[in-house]
Amino acid sequence: MKPIFEYTKGMTDMPTHYCPGCTHGIAHRLIMEVLDEMGVLGNTVGVAPIGCSVMAHQYMNVDMCEAAHGRAPAVASGIRRVHPDKIVFTYQGDGDLASIGTGEIIHAAVRGEKFTTFFINNGIYGMTGGQMAPTTLIGQKSTTSQDGRSKELNGMPVKMSEMLATIDGAAYVERVALDSPAHVRQAKKAIRRAFEIQQQGLGFTLIEFLSTCPTNWGMTPVKALEWVRNNVMAYYPIGVIKEPAKEEQA
Amino acid sequence: MRAFKLVFRPEKCKGCELCRSVCPKGVIGMAATVNAKGYHPACAVNQEACIGCQSCALMCPDGAIAIYQLEEGDQ
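Structure tokens for the assembled complex are given below, as produced in the milestone run.
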């Protein structure tokens, strides 16, 4: 029998604590598959956040460091400066990156820190029980917006990727979705490109994943993917938001 | 014609049904039994129809699916 798909050795054999159908598992696997294919599993340092993915260091089979809430970019900046030959990434949710860690991520991009951030955007605080996040859509219900988020009361959801793309130090910013096999393949290509641009030292790189939270959205995993397709992608369009000019790339 | 074999790890499966929802050929179903976690794990109910597109494995959040292409002499 010829294997055409096997679980990557970039992931440990430990069962994840994520809820059924949570797309964290897909994002973890894609990042580790890319690192495995690049042959750099032993030359990578990841920084795990606070949030549902706080245990990511148990699942990703690379050296990992745990950062305080929202401070993963600061930790990753230090690691990448001390070890310029290593591949460094942070893995952050929307509560971690778009709320408490907004200042950190903006200034990491301003300094053009040469690490890659994976931003998991599911529009809700998953670990703490489904509170409204800065990225919660207008009209979306959460435990702290029980009639749905309102523009008057809460403002519009923040588009972190577009905001960070305006910063000179950001070399590559792309938004991808994990709602279908085609988009998952596209996401893997984006991850590869981000790591390659990091290796070339062109600047800060960020990939935003449109993800799901079936438990706190109150949907089945399959319905949650449909909701991403029909509602989330309408407000957060997927695609490359910023990329280095052709002449910059080696 | 090429034939494929899906290998499931039922102990990893959380029964989210994402694999079943993306399979274009209706190969995957949910077992009547429960695993140690208490979920009905995914299983192949129509193995012969598999075209090896990998959609199920790409969408599986828990690494419960591996796919092999059968070669001559394989059972």
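The radius of gyration of chain B is 12 Å. Chain B has one domain: 4-69. Further analysis is deferred to the final report.
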